[in-house]
Amino acid sequence: MAFRGLQLAFIVLVIAHVCFGWDYAVWWDFLPLVLAYAVVTAGNRWGGAPDSPRVARDPLEVAAPVTGRWSALNSPADRTPSHGIHSHGQTYAIDILAEPGPGARPAFRWLWPIARRPQAFPAFGAPLLAVADATVVRAADGQRDHLSRNSLPGLLYLMLVEGSVRELTGVNRILGNHVILDLGNGTYAAYAHLQRGSLTVREGDSVHAGQPLARCGKSGNSSEPHPHFQLMDGPDPDAARGAPFTWSGIGVPQGGETFEAPPAAVALG
């Protein structure tokens, strides 16, 4: 909240400076922005750290949220926090990329094409499955699927402009379309970057392990279509802290590691 307030103060100061012609140096307008990133850096470093009593637990074994051939990215098997931040319950989060075969996924480009349609990526439209018997506590899929950001200009835009705007407007814009499951015993599973209009469940529904929940999309703060999965100790990503997981028969794949999640690895309900 403090981070967003300071970002908003920066925007207001810049507009006021231009409109009223204040005579102090313009770089003073950036002070709230500097303070904002100091706040978020401190919060990400210590908020929800792995040694917190709230998350000092053994990894919870759940089924994989997908089937087929995938590779891991930003994995907690390599480091925690896996995405470089503890906020939004992301300490042990993982991103996975569809790898159905050689050349099936468009490669990162330095300059051109700057962006691609999400349909160009094999992960787009892939079914996402419940990792355990659970209750749906949050389900949202009204945000659009935007173009990829898998070029250098696109990635810089995502990191420097789009990501900051999404931080300012709230965690829902970071996650994009998402669903959160209550697994019981104080553990919640979150799936982010879902395809618009693809949800097959609603808040309050009971689901079984292996049941389709939605499809992978390109919403929220993402560079290309991919599922983002994490466990948390609460239903609200703004307040929750990350919790460790392991996938049945797979474990926690390291970044760049390819793994196969066959239908047998998901307990169909």
What would your notes on this structure say?
The strands form three sheets. Strands 2, 3, 5, 6, 7, 8, 10, 11 and 13 form a nine-stranded antiparallel beta sheet that branches. Helix 1 (2-20) packs antiparallel against helix 2. This protein folds into two domains: 2-46, no CATH class; 60-265, Glucose Permease (Domain IIA) (Distorted Sandwich). It is built from four helices and 13 strands. The radius of gyration is 19 Å and the shape is globular. The protein starts with a helix and ends in an 8-residue tail after the last strand. Helix content is 22%, strand content 21%. The chain is α+β, with helices and mostly antiparallel strands.
In short:
The chain has 269 residues and is α+β, with helices and mostly antiparallel strands. Helix content is 22%, strand content 21%. A hairpin with a 2-residue loop joins strand 6 and strand 7 (187-192).
Q: What topology does this entry show?
A:
Layout lengths: L1 H19 L10 H16 L13 E3 L5 E6 L20 E5 L28 E3 L4 E7 L11 H18 L1 H5 L2 E7 L2 E6 L13 E2 L4 E4 L12 E5 L9 E2 L1 E3 L10 E4 L8
Parallel strand pairs: 1-12
Antiparallel strand pairs: 2-3, 2-13, 3-10, 4-9, 5-6, 5-8, 6-7, 7-10, 10-11
Helix pairs in contact: 1-2
Please name the fourth-level CATH homologous superfamily of the largest domain.
Glucose Permease (Domain IIA)
Helix/strand order, N-terminal first: HHEEEEEHHEEEEEEEE
Distance between the amino and carboxyl termini: 40 Å
Strand content: 15-25%
CATH class (first level) name of the largest domain: Mainly Beta
The major beta sheet can be summarized as:
9 strands, antiparallel
Structural class: alpha+beta
Shape: globular
If helices are DSSP runs of H or I spanning 4 or more residues, what is the number of helices?
4
The beta-strand count equals 13
Whole-number mean pLDDT: 81
- The low-confidence parts are 44-56, 264-269
CATH architecture of the largest domain: Distorted Sandwich
